Amino acid sequence: MDSPRNNEQARLSKWIDSLLSSSLVPSRWRMTTRTGSLLCDCGSIQYDLVVPPSSQLVEQTNAVCHCRDCVGFCLALPNGDSYLQNNGSFMVNFYKSDLQLVKGRDKLSTVRLYPHSAIVRIYCGECHTPLGADLVGAAPICLVNETLIHETYSVRFLPSVVLGYKDALHGTKPYARSVSVKWRNYGPLFLWKSIWRVIWGWLAGKSRGGFLENDYNRDFPVGLDGLKKVTTQ
Fold this sequence. Notes:
It comes from Nitzschia inconspicua. This is CENP-V/GFA domain-containing protein. The chain is α+β, with helices and mostly antiparallel strands. It has one domain (33-231): Metal Binding Protein, Guanine Nucleotide Exchange Factor, Chain A. It contains four helices and eleven strands, in the order αβββαββββββββαα. The strands form two sheets. Strands 3, 4, 5, 7, 8, 9, 10 and 11 form an eight-stranded mixed β-sheet that branches. Strand 1 and strand 2 form a beta hairpin.
């Protein structure tokens, strides 16, 4: 049963959606719900992307992440290197409430790269397509593999933002638990928007849903070695 707080947040979001899409708002500032689909390669899993105006108040962020966790996750899957761009993982953030599972719940497979990690990686158990990552708990953000959505959903990009970039000059090592940001090419803007997007997501109650639909009470497999064994059987 939804709590009174969740109901208040839902009403706030609906009110903002109605206001921002109203004809009373000048057309240059008026917003509409943006839609698309997220499909694995074999079509077993489908999510609809339904992004209302209230989710667009703080623009989405996206980045090519070169940390060894994101890259290692893709490489641990068969043909996973085909999902890398510029030797990195291109991820776009969505609010959890904006992902709606259409089919394939029984095909969803998961892995934590480290015990007790808050990040759960999601892939298709049939074709092993890396779908993205879900942040366990109240965090409103989930990360989606851009390769799977670019033809159905127009993402407003921040160009050339790079996470976990290996800087030969300063010796920066790409590592997910201490991610570095390449400060050229919109690095500060990426951080600023990411922080405010998370804050707004909490305030507007966009933490419900996501890849796992809040189903976090399970034992997630741990480690890339185990992932490689499962996907090569």
